[in-house]
Design a protein that fits this description.
The protein has a single domain, classed as Alpha-Beta Plaits (2-Layer Sandwich). The model has no long low-confidence stretch (mean pLDDT 96). The chain has 97 residues and is an alpha+beta fold. The longest helix is centred in the N-terminal third of the chain and has 16 residues. The chain is built from four helices and four strands. It has a four-stranded antiparallel β-sheet. It starts with a strand and ends with a strand. It is globular, with a radius of gyration of 13 Å.
């Protein structure tokens, strides 16, 4: 199976930066314990303190699919409209070299 890479970007609503940072940071520890998680790293844009990005690598698509159904990710979904200007942009990549 091919390694699956995910790049997910979140843009906080004005005044919600700290809340979004806290919510996203709370996903890191439980996600890193999930089967198939190679890395799950949260980044902050140096140009825009309201923009966050996850860079993730998974051993397979089924492992990523299981992550998307995890309780901690499901708990964040209802808060996205409150914390973000739009639904996060999620791009999936396949490692080729």
């Amino acid at each position: 199976m091919k390694t699956v890479t995910v790049v997910a970007t979140f843009q906080a609503k004005p005044g919600k930066e700290a809340e979004l940072k806290s919510a996203l940071t709370g996903l890191v520890a439980p996600t890193r314990k999930e089967a198939g998680c190679i890395n799950y790293d949260l980044h902050l844009s140096p140009e825009d303190p309201a923009k966050f990005m996850f860079h993730e690598n998974w051993t397979s698509q089924p492992h990523l699919d299981a992550h998307l159904q995890s309780a901690h990710l499901k708990a964040l979904r209802p808060r996205v409209d409150e914390l973000c200007v739009a639904f996060p942009e999620i791009k999936i990549w396949e490692k080729i070299a």
